[in-house]
Amino acid sequence: MSDTQANKNYSAENIKVLEGLEAVRKRPAMYIGDVGKRGLHHLVYEVVDNSIDEALAGYCSRIIVVFNKDGSVTVEDNGRGIPVDIHKEEKKPAVEVVMTVLHAGGKFDKGSYKVSGGLHGVGVSVVNALSEWMWVEVKRDGKVHRQEYKIGEPQTDLKTVGTAKKTGTKVCFYPDNNIFKTIGFEYDIISERLRELAYLNKGIEIQLKDERSEDGESDVFKFKGGLSDFVKYLDEHNNPLHNKIITVNREDGEVPVEVALRYGNTYNDNILTFVNNINTIEGGTHLSGFRSALTRAMNNHASKNNLIKTKKNEKITLTGEDFREGLTAIVSVKVAEPQFEGQTKTKLGNGDVKGVVDKVVYEGILDFLEQNPSIGRKIIEKALLAARSRSAARKARELIRRKSALGGSSLPGKLSDCSNRDPVFCELYLVEGDSAGGSAKQGRDRRTQAILPLRGKVINSEKARVDKLLSNNEVQSIITALGAGFGGSEDEFGEKSPGDFDLEKLRYHKIIIMTDADVDGSHIRTLLLTFFYRKMKEVIDGGYLYLALPPLYRVSQGKKESYAYDDNERDLLIERMKKDNKNTKVGIQRYKGLGEMNPGQLWETTMDPEKRTLMKVTVESAAEAAETFQNLMGSDVEARRGFIERNAKFVVNLDV
Length: 656
Prior knowledge:
20% strand, 20 helices, 656 residues, Ribosomal Protein S5, domain 2, disordered C terminus, 36% helix, alpha+beta, flat
């Protein structure tokens, strides 16, 4: 079918209706994840995804997103424009159906879009239902059509308000503050997602403008290199093992597969996977196919060219884990009817996709290595070093296992365990230093709270190979205390070998990092976060990692005392106490260390489940998180300085 025919045939008949809008306002979290910051920003993604669907179909080359002064958001594209003719079943204009009926849209009609993204495919109607007001303008058939809505209900008929030489759709909405905890959009969160979309859709231009202030930010994202540029962006502060990026862009059946990868002189891998532009953070069949293809292609090339050079009496078998060390890769597939495991679309379940990805990536990598033998040689040499490190790590891991509870032996000597054995009710506090550890042990609830004092320095997981990491005493203690093993030695089918990390064996469902509120405490906290992100990310993904928030100040007046967690709260407490009693002096104590608090104070402020404040550690964007840890904890001093300078404005308390 020609483009002209497709454009003409994209009409009300292509808009399929599956169900109504009744439940959206009653249970918004079912449709957008939550009603906090994440759900709010998903409203923008959902509207943008409609425009991206037009781009995937080949009809849209530019998308403009604007944060308006009044707090609303406008999304405009130059696609075909949502159809405005009368829908046969609904007896109303198709654009009104799209805007007011759940699961209505062209993405549910195979003739309109081969593939489409969008959160759960719920359509822009969910955004309408959760907005105080919304309007849409469609440029189509030489006219500009407009309709306005309030809380999902049309306030006007679809009207013709002007003429247009071009086509496109423009949507503006204002989130309902009766639904959302906050309605303030964050520029950085949206820009990161739009940047990602521009990488994934080579050549499309996405503009972002913040007009809420006169000096508001703006960005234009357009990448001719697509995924290759994405890899360069993620790898920006790494020393690449080879400059040329390995790319695969092939189609098998009706599944286009695009891959870009490069190796660096680091010890961690960073593989991001996408299906129809959706970040599948839990992987799935496309990731399994990629891993299998990578391992087979590299081993085939090494064997064929006699590249596995071993020492005398040394036996080495290169595994997938060895070939993933230092790897940065993007895997993007387009699937007509994706099957996702769970409502969050984070793991692809289509069985046939694994074989397709395996086949085309295997062929593509082999072709590249044959044409670039020097790069192949470097990769195999790096994999051999990784294999030797893995062998040393295996011996260290066995030693840890023999010491651990899993092996039937005792837990770490410095661990003060809790009496409860049900992980759901158990908490492990990772506490900086012996003095704070002593206070925590005395102040805790012994039934459910375990304390592990960290006496020495936690090794930097960003810069250390796994064998060196496992020789660190503090890391050994953490692994043993958690009881879930260590390492993710997966085969090409995604199966883990026996004895490796198993989340189901985790002894505590709350792992709480509790450090001092000074520079040293922040550094230890960052080292621990780096360890969990790089080596036990399943703990973060499972929602088991937390940060304790100890108070910065104790404000007292006579026998009255209160605690403040920041400078503003301190000032308010002082003001209130002076107002209540002008004649008695107000005392202020600044806590630099947890050890300065007695056990009762530590319990009351930081450990009592009824009063404490815990921050759950989550990863919103895998790409952004990987880059942050790389910048902050990697070897590039300039990258670290730049990161600190860019983020200095967010520092609330600085200890000098």
